[in-house]
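Minutes, project check-in
Item: structure for the 317-residue chain
Input as provided by the requester:
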Amino acid sequence: MEIIEHPCIRKSAFSGVLDKNLKKLEKRLGVSLSLRGDSLLIDGPQDRMDFAKQYFDIIKNLEKKGNSLKEEDFHIALDLLEEGEGDRIKNFFPSKPLNLSRKTVTPKSLNQQDYIQAIKKHDLVFGIGPAGTGKTYLAMAMALSFLQHKAVTRIILIRPAVEAGEKLGFLPGDMQQKINPYLRPLYDALFDLAKTDQANRLIERGIIEIAPLAYMRGRTLNSAFIILDEAQNTTKEQMKMILTRTGFDSKLVVTADITQIDLPQPQKSGVIHAMKILENIKEIAILEFNHKDVVRHPLVQKIVKAYQKAESKAQKK
């Protein structure tokens, strides 16, 4: 058994509420962790104990530098260590939270942290990954932050209505009512981040626009933060159209889960095509998320990992 002296450990977010974070770190490190006074006790296979000791030494050094680590910072630092990013660990500092009207948002994984930084630095960002990894939610948080700081004058939220043909025709109501089910996830993210009355005012004034992709044709979108959600369901032509709508002082974030393509055959996903032909343009960032980034119920992370494993085996056959 290894004992690490850590006098600040109970004052930090290390253990979490009811030791919840302690249990998460146990699973990731593959060791048993317990607190005794101001000491942390580590038990398990020797190789995992050595790795855990290296990790907690890094945490100690980060706190000695004056970093006030939050729960998510412990996991981002562990991501860096697992990725072999030694230099980044030495220069690690907690992410600044996005303070929005309804809540404060901070990245909970290394990829989420990189995603936020990419959106700040690049005018076109692709966020690719499975459900629950925060692609759309963080993009929405960044859009509201940009609007709040007057870096843009409006937010435009777009989704393709995949079944825009005859199936939509069977739904009751006018066209807006027919497409609302497709746009609902964007409304959900918006109203979770912004106060309801504020969000409604912004929508009524046209400062926030939520619309299907087809409504973007022929427009030039200046001084706007644009989010194209569920982009795996765009055709090549639709993707080219939206990529060329971006005007001056605008940002475009494209989110997609390429394992959930609902386009009718033989149509190919426009986002996969776009990433291939744009990957060498340095002004464009492409961020890929995985099961580590899932922030929904812990079971969702296991489900995503199982599907990724099965799909990887299928591709090798």
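Outcome recorded: Residues 171 and 178 are 6 Å apart (CA to CA).
No further action items on this chain.
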